[in-house]
Amino acid sequence: MGGEKKSVFNLPLKLILTEAGYTFFIRKNKKLLRFRLADNLDEYGISLEDFTPGTIQRLLLIDYVSKIEISRPEFLSARQEVMDLSKLIVYTMLYRQYDQHIFSQVLASDVIKKWNRLNPASIIDAKTKINETFLQNVLKKNQEAILDAKRDILEPLYNYISKNTSLLPEEKNMQLLLSEKFLTNLRPFTWFIITKFKDADGYDVILRTLRTSLTEYMDKAKIAEYVSLMVMELAINAENTNLKRAANAMYKGTVDPNSVLYDPTIRKKVIAELEKRRELVSIAWKLGGNSSSIGTQGKLQITLYNQDSEYNETKESIDNKKSADLKKKSLIDFYKEIPEGQEDVDLGLYYLSYLSEACEKVNIKFESLVNQFKDNDVTVITLSFIF
């Protein structure tokens, strides 16, 4: 997987299932849990305490998970894991989009059009059903042809990465692994078509399409780092606000609220109090579905909720009022309005401008929005991406 450093994450997650995921776990007699999420909705899913990145990625790739949520009083101690999880989700969305794009391109190729004209009784299209066992046997038999095709696609990219003097050796390795991962995650049916038509006229055009699109998606993958930094910046900003507010209430002004950020003893006590009062910061990653979900494909929404103890009750009453009670603004305005002297405001603006610019360069639609519920100071920050 692009991005993970640890083999096992210790990060309590709520995974909300898609219909396919729900059906799968019910058939496996897995007891599903009913969660009350940060957006105040009840959803069914499973919870994980310890997991490998690969487990999460597999569930996402087969479209079993529609949302991942994590809620904590503080994120600093889990900084690397949360950033790696965020990167993993972005990479997985891109693998899925690349797979869908290539499948469509292959089906629209002259090779397939010609086959369909000459074989009207056995046309190849998006609705073609193929026996899984038969498919796996053919792919096993054609393993050499698949490796040859992968080599043809990757060789020019490998040469470019190897000669790129601006990359460190570790970064080159990451890029090489990432390019392989995109190809590995193409659906088996695509490889079946590629091997079936390896001697046909126009085969080289199919390979060229895979190569060109791979370069585009490798460029898109560069935003994963910016997204993870932005998510962590927002989480720590919310966490610091909560810690200082709680320290003020607990110590009645007898200690400097900033000391909670630097004094381990005070910090530990305040975090325990926030945990007890369930005043948590939540991050939710909502994933658009695969091709079956019209309009949501390729969409990722990351939402940060900073909730106080009366959040659920107050939010319900706010939701019942007119939307005029909501004050919406862009994230950039939100940062500019943070009082002077608050930590890392410049850092937030810095990440945001880099993220916006990086998305624009690679044709990813990016939007950020902040909703503030004035009645109870709940802040809901949403980052939306269409890949």
Automatic annotation (TrEMBL):
<protein>
    <submittedName>
        <fullName>Uncharacterized protein</fullName>
    </submittedName>
</protein>
<dbReference type="Pfam" id="PF26329">
    <property type="entry name" value="DUF8084"/>
</dbReference>
<dbReference type="InterPro" id="IPR058397">
    <property type="entry name" value="DUF8084"/>
</dbReference>
